[in-house]
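Open question from group meeting: does this chain pack into something compact, or does most of it stay loose? Before anyone orders reagents, we agreed to write out a predicted structure and look at it together. Recording both the input and the output here so the notebook holds the full record.
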Amino acid sequence: MPSTIIERYKRILNGQQKRFSPYEFEDIQYRKKKIQLVLRYAIEHVRQWTPEQARERLSIKDVKELKLHLVREYIEPPVEAKPNDVYYLVEYAYPYLPRPTEEQKVMWVYQEVLAGVRRHFPPHYFQSVKGEERARICFDHLWKNILNIQDERMLPQIFSKTEQAYRILRTYKLKILVDTLYFSPYDLITELYPALADPALWMEEAVEIEIG
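Structure tokens returned:
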């Protein structure tokens, strides 16, 4: 039964047992409950944190000290998580905690890519319908908040010049959009903003903008 998992976890913490039995989490019916019990015991009784404190404080060092790597392997990390991120363990233990919106998660990833904290976006990040939504969020941020373009109808004039379009996308780490999701800067713009497919907008004189 799930309730006995804490006694086994205590023995692991005390050094009386090295790990859980390989059959401990075999029963899918009880697996999640057992993992949550272990995580909550570690957070509330060993560290004596509230769930909110745990979300702010839990680190990979804590996970190792608390032997939580023994249950971490059974939890599918979110696509945004970096190898040493462990915040999602707290979210798994306390599903009622407020979660960031999809836009907030995408902006967290994109800001880390821009800052060099991440070398690149997570694998397959811009695939599927959700990937298109992520692409829009990133590109919206690029032209509205980084390039400070006031009107989306200016985008064809800026991205019609191929060399400039690719330079912008490379500089602001979004060339991956035309490498994996769209065929060209034109395709990117017209897929994200169908109203901008009007040929007249692309025939207007190209606009140079300062980059970097």
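Observations to bring back to the group:
The chain has a mean pLDDT of 94.
The radius of gyration is 23 Å.
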